[in-house]
Design a protein that fits this description.
The chain contains twelve helices and eleven strands. It folds into two domains: 133 residues, Peroxisomal Thiolase, Chain A, domain 1 (3-Layer(aba) Sandwich); 218 residues, Peroxisomal Thiolase, Chain A, domain 1 (3-Layer(aba) Sandwich), CATH 3.40.47.10. The chain has a nine-stranded mixed sheet, with helices on both faces. It has 387 residues and is of the alpha/beta class. 32% of the residues lie in helices and 18% in strands.
């Protein structure tokens, strides 16, 4: 098991919007500058930089130059999706521990609404049909939403999960977003609103789907001793890891139905390992920031992280347990369903801010342990953060 002696010392983000009117480079530079300022560091203090994208962002070389970093000793550009954020925190922690870098910036920047829209045309090799997908795409199975809808339907058939349970997740997160000045969606959402919204990919309605957003978010990772001398209270990386079980012939989401049980995702396998590594249990977690590209991924996360029994995620959410005053507050910023879709980077940033006590009206009292997940299906990463 990996042992980390690292901390997140700074967070930074741009305005989240539907049309930034700016280049992705300028968004990335702003978010990184704010993360450095949050930590109280200068460009000369940072010598590592990492990012992930699906061909819709800008490389670390350009951002490092834009930031004026005088020396870069570690850099990585990962061509992948939302399972990256927590894995990059682990990688940055290893870079710091090995001495390859003293402080590492991680960013995700995108014009995800006004520019390239995920799942739309123009994705190039990122979305070219592969292996089994070539036999389905011609028949209309094109999007992530269609794929996850099949997963969700299996849970509904097996465990009696209802549409109202999915609605409870969307509504709970919207209630949190109402208290978040950065949230793109700040209009109250009722069950009636949810049920009346158009169906996108049955059983998913409009509000089961994450937003499309322009913006950027960045984190700064450094050693734990160094973080204690930075401006903000350090948030320690207690455990972090990645899990991937590649399906036959196609490791991408397109063949994810070959996964043995569509009622669970990678969290079922990764969470026990991280709890053991951190020396913690589900009942020790004060706040959970669960990757929410769809309401159903939250449901799987609730079960996979051990907050409720298998098959009971929908009923658990409908009980109010995931609200800000619930048993385990989930996606306290509104998540990607209501704050912004920055491919899960803002999910991590919210966990950091909760543990620092910086969340104002949506602050979870006395939050000391946060579990963060990154990713939706067979491949994902996660981290446990503490103060």
């Amino acid at each position: 098991m990996a042992k980390f002696d690292s901390a997140i010392a700074g967070v930074g983000f741009t305005e989240y919007s539907l049309d930034s009117g700016r280049s992705i480079l300028s968004l990335a530079v702003e978010a990184c500058q704010k993360a450095m300022a949050d930590a109280g560091l200068q460009p000369k203090d940072v010598d590592g930089i990492m990012e992930f994208s699906l061909g819709d962002s800008v490389p670390t070389e350009s951002v490092a130059q834009g930031l004026g970093l005088p020396e870069v000793n570690y850099a990585a550009d990962w061509f992948c999706g939302g399972f990256a954020p927590s894995a990059l925190i682990a990688t940055a922690s290893m870079a710091v521990a090995s001495g390859m870098a003293k402080a590492v910036l991680i960013y995700r920047a995108m014009n995800g609404r006004s520019g390239f829209r995920l799942g739309g045309a123009g994705g190039g090799d990122a979305f070219r049909p592969k292996a089994g997908a070539q036999y389905r795409v011609p028949y209309g199975w094109l999007t992530f939403g269609q794929n996850m809808a099949l997963w969700c339907r299996r849970h509904m058939e097996k465990y009696g999960t209802k549409q109202e349970h999915l609605a409870a997740i969307a509504i709970s997160q919207r209630e949190a977003a109402l208290l978040n000045e950065r949230a793109v969606q700040r209009k109250p959402l009722t069950l009636e609103d949810y049920m009346a919204s158009r169906v996108i990919a049955e059983p998913f309605h409009l509000y089961d789907m994450s937003l499309e957003t322009d913006g950027a978010c960045a984190l700064l990772v450094t050693s734990a001793p160094r973080a204690r001398n930075c401006r903000q209270k350090p948030v320690y990386v207690r455990a972090a890891g990645h899990y991937g079980k590649l399906t036959v012939g196609d490791p991408m989401w397109a063949d994810a139905f070959l996964w043995p049980d569509l009622t669970e995702n990678y969290t079922t396998y990764l969470a026990p390992r991280l709890y053991e590594e951190a020396g913690l249990k589900p009942e020790d977690v004060d706040v959970a920031e669960i990757y929410d590209c769809f309401t159903y991924t939250v449901l799987m996360g609730l079960e996979g992280l051990g907050f409720c029994k298998k098959g009971e995620g929908g009923f658990f959410a409908a009980s109010g347990a995931t609200g800000l005053k619930g048993k385990i507050p989930v996606n306290t910023n509104g998540g990607m369903l209501s704050e912004a879709y920055i491919h899960g980077m803002n999910t991590v940033a919210e966990a950091v801010m909760q543990l620092r006590g910086d969340c104002g009206k949506r602050q979870v009292p006395n939050a000391e342990v946060a579990f963060v997940t990154s990713g939706a299906t067979t491949i994902g990463s996660a981290c446990i953060l503490t103060v």
